[in-house]
Amino acid sequence: MSVRLMVVDDHRLLAEALASALKLRGHRVLAAAAPTSGAAELVVSRAPEVCLFGTATPAEPGTFDPIARIGRERPQVAVVVLGPVSSPRGIAAAFAAGAAGYVRHDERIEGVERAIIKARAGEAAVAPQLLRAAFTELLNPAVQPDDEGQRLLRMLTPREVEVLVRVAEGEDTRLIAAGMGIASSTARTHVQRVLMKLGVGSRLEAAALAARTGLLDRAVLDTRQAPDLLA
Fold it and tell me: Counting beta carbons within 10 angstroms of the beta carbon of residue 48, is it exposed (0 to 12), middle (13 to 18) or buried (19 or more)?
């Protein structure tokens, strides 16, 4: 059963090799091109029955924008994504963009051909194990490690966060005390606690660490969002 199709891939050699293999199996390949960012223009102008869309980065934002455009302008075209099996979120993103199928990039040509034929027939062309993996990760997402800035910020009290912001702005003990309405001795104690908790030996090191880890930006945001906590 011959299918009129188009092959696009971020790697031109892969696109051309796949197109050649499909031609040998009796399919009519209208184009084999790269990169995938230009897939929408090709599909809209050539109107194949199926577009085989290869990508190595399915989880990257914007990867499947061309598929969404194809769905809007050529809804009769079925798009089958050829991508890595280790990206459940990428699989979900492909179908969310309007893909009709998803095939692992190490699949045999027979498997790719079956997916193409199923997609043209209006069926979902995806292996059950890929769907299971995608749903498992989406329903039970892995806990992402906290970034360093967030970890350090949690070590400080609201008062110490304000002190750190003032230290980073170059205020000395006298200015910190005046600005916070506390005694100089209290301000000095707060500064020492901040240095100790951050594991640094000077105000300059504290300011540099806060800027490098993003702690300073988070601290400024927190002091603006919750000024009542600092009273």
Answer: buried
CB 79 within 8 A of CB 98: yes
Cβ burial, residue 174 (10 Å; 0-12/13-18/19+): exposed
Whether 83 contacts 104, CB under 8 Å: yes
Higher local confidence (pLDDT), 128 or 175: 175
Q: Which of 134, 197, 126, 130 is CA-nearest to residue 160?
A: 197
Which contacts (CB < 8 Å, 24+ apart) does range 223-227 have? 223/158, 223/161, 223/162, 223/165, 226/158
Higher pLDDT residue, 126 or 88?
126
| Contact predicate 220/210, CB 8 Å | no
